[in-house]
Amino acid sequence: MKLWRWLLLLIVVAALAAFGWHWVAEDPGYVLVRLRGWRVETTVVVALAIVVLAWALLAGLWRLARWPFGAMSRRHRRVSRQRLGGGLVALMEGRHGEAERDLERAARLDELRGPALVAAAEAASRRGEPARALETLNRAGQVAPQAARVVRARVLRRDGKPAEALALLGPEADSGSLTPGGWHELALAALAAGEPRRALAALEPLQKSGALGTQRYAALETQVLVAALLAAPDGQALNALWSQLPKGQRRAPAVIDAYARRAAAFGLALPAMDELESALRREWSPQLAETWGTLEGDDLDTRLRRAEAWLDAHPNDPGLLLALGRMCVRQQLWGKARTYLERSLAIAPSPGAWEAMGDACIGQGDIPLAQRCYRNALALTRGDATLDLPRDGRLSHPDTRSLAVEERDEHGIPRLRK
């Protein structure tokens, strides 16, 4: 198809050239130039040819005269681009001082001034020099205002001034003209400033922009939602916020856990329990099972039997075992509690399990062993080593291999143990 177009174009050009030549040949025109006694006579075609040749000659001479200066300019651009590339590589490699020096030199070229100064400010911030970074951003704001504003907010947040970063990004956020990086910084600054509601408003535009990957956005969304739920001032505000969240946002285990704990703190144990049980029916979560066991309520016997039924399907779940142990402690079933708690500790030791074990030991009057359990809970919280419990006493470490069962996913396919 393209070949036929070129042939058609050539035919049209040839026809126009033949017609033009015939038209000029009939009357080539007459040009007379008189200057100080000089007299030049020629046709229009020759005059046009002379003008074109003269223009080409003058253009060639002008390029020849500018060549030395152009060579210097080309060398300056080439060196500046090399410095920009080297500075960015040094920034990624952690050589921040070298990166800042190369980027400052690259900024001498006007076309690279904006990105070079913004990257130099980032290098200064990573070196722990926020004042120098803000000074560099003042110059970068003249050529790349939006990028400089986002980086300025990041520098302020890193410097422990999230409120200033939030105020910097606020006007553009209110007008909806904030860049994706700006929305991300707004969410982080709002979280650091203790204003999760502002961070909550940044989630929708940030999701639409697609600036963050699926996993990274999900992690940020969970962090923002948890902070917003935990900051609810009363039960009414908590339920209002919970009802406004889309269903997709109310399915994350950490978000459900935050709602349940906050609702229980306001005395709303029944709604919290309903949400936890609904979530556990959809998908099992050790975190939610543990939280479910901490809720207060009068139907402790019924809940204990329900948890023991769950244990048949999840015998190696440390969160469920901890929940069972805590409920047995509240019912003063000390021996049963210690059985569940020692299994939980054998599978995955946690401060909560050690604390509950200490409560069970106190219930049985074993004060020295309870003290050791409490010390282990504190040591595990600090990341220190824990003390082994005596194996020759009533408490021993069970062989958890006998508790191994086949686990299957929602499609019935056996799942490998982690």
From TrEMBL:
Chain intervals for the UniProt region annotation (Disordered): 391-418
Limits of the HemY N-terminal domain: 29-128
Annotated compartments: Cell inner membrane
Aminoacyl-tRNA synthetase listed as a keyword: no
Pathway named in the protein's UniProt entry: Porphyrin-containing compound metabolism; protoheme biosynthesis
Keywords in alphabetical order: Cell inner membrane, Cell membrane, Membrane, Porphyrin biosynthesis, Transmembrane, Transmembrane helix
Stretches that traverse the bilayer: 44-65
UniProt topology in membrane: Multi-pass membrane protein
Record's keyword annotation contains Cell inner membrane: yes
Function: Involved in a late step of protoheme IX synthesis.
Protein name per the record: Tetratricopeptide repeat protein
